[in-house]
Design brief:
Elements: H1 2-17, H2 21-54
Helix pairs in contact: 1-2
Length: 55
Amino acid sequence: MLHYALVFFVIALVAALFGFGGIAAGAAGIAKVLFFIFLVLFVVSLIAGGMRRGR
């Protein structure tokens, strides 16, 4: 999922470079959402792993 966030971020950068503001904003928004979903899943997996290791 982090890979897709980085892909959309690169798309946003390229679109902004060529002056496509709407496309750049949309791609940046998608990248932001995917990154935060990745962070939430990462934290949940760390907590679950810590609880499993504690037993």
